[in-house]
Amino acid sequence: MTVTFRIILIAASVIAMASALSRIRRAKMGIENAVYWILFSALLILLSVFPSIIYFFTGLLGMQSPANLLFLIIIFLLLVKEFSQSIHISRLEEKLTILAQDMALREKAEADREEETDGKEETDGKEKAGKTDKKRQIKKTEKKADKKAEVLPGKKDGTISK
């Protein structure tokens, strides 16, 4: 491994680690992701500071160049990360679908209840109808506010991390 390649590897690893740490401080990254990137960066720093490790495994596996093995390791680790992200995204999409269906069923039930109560009420003129309309608007506004404040399934505190 050339000195230039080692310097580039160390610089890239330090930048990746610093980025992960700064995102943790700003609460923009989850702990699982941060741990992955910190360990990934630490591995790259270790391999660039002690190239004898990569030379040993290159000879053990019968590969031509240590750089080839290093790239193979990096590609493998990134594919593992991408696979785990795909699983996470699939779970989130499933939760979103369930949540949307639940909200649609609740809205339908509320609309049916309002139609039933509207059919039973008798209006004594425009004054009574105006008061009823205002009450409905207030109820709808309160329901919308309640829906926004609902806790998502699987989250205890109602927060959503990005």
Summary tags:
162 residues; mainly alpha; 5 helices; 0% strand
Descriptive overview:
By secondary structure, the protein is mostly helical. The chain has a domain at 3-108. It contains 5 helices and no strands. Helix 1 packs antiparallel against helix 2 and helix 2 (31-49) crosses helix 3 (51-61). The radius of gyration is 29 Å and the shape is elongated. It starts with a helix and ends in a 13-residue tail after the last helix. Residues 155-159 have low confidence and may be disordered.
Short description:
The protein is 81% helix and 0% strand. With 162 residues, the chain is mainly α. Helix 1 (3-25) runs antiparallel to helix 2 and helix 2 (31-49) packs across helix 3.
Task: Outline the biggest β-sheet.
Answer: none
- What is the number of helical segments per DSSP (H or I, 4+ residues)? 5
The rough form would be described as elongated
- Helix proportion: over 70%
Give the strand tally: 0
List the topology elements.
Blueprint: H1 3-25, H2 31-49, H3 51-61, H4 66-120, H5 126-149
Helix pairs in contact: 1-2, 2-3
